[in-house]
Amino acid sequence: MARIAGVSIPDNKRIVIALTYIYGVGSSRSKEVLTALKLNSDTRTKDLSETDVNKLKDYIEKNFTIEGELKHQKQMNIRRLKDIGCYRGIRHMKGLTVRGQRTRTNTRTVRGNVRKTAGSGRRKAAEKT
Question: HEC profile for the chain?
């Protein structure tokens, strides 16, 4: 198994798909990396030579923010929004949707599965006697 940026890349997948296991590298970015390094996207990870793996590792680590650094940067951006008290920061603090989604319905998981109508959470009554 090849390791790039501290992530084990699966052996039996095509390299274009295997690179997406790295946090911060999606399908478009993996295609971009492979065209820049002139590697075939249909080759399997196990078929790559050691030099190809080293090229991939160096290119990705130099040109992109990935894994722990990206997660830290994302967390700091959210903290900044909370500190300045903007609308998006307040939504983050309350645990509500941030990007304009509707919340009257379709957000049960975000709101904690709150059921507000009278009969929606009630169990069926036992048999009448």
Answer: CEEECCEEECCCCEHHHHHHHCCCCCHHHHHHHHHHHCCCCCCEHHHCCHHHHHHHHHHHHHHCCCHHHHHHHHHHHHHHHHHHCCHHHHHHHHCCCCCCCCCCCCCHHHHCCCCCCCCCCCCCCCCCC
Listed by start position, the domains of the chain span 2-64, 68-111
Looking at the domain covering 2-64, what would its CATH class be? mainly alpha
Sign of the C-alpha dihedral computed for residues 63, 64, 67 and 71 taken in this order: positive
- Kindly report, residue by residue over 18-69, the tens digit of the pLDDT: 999 999 999 999 999 999 999 999 999 999 999 999 999 999 999 999 999 9
pLDDT tens readout for residues 113-122: 777 776 665 6
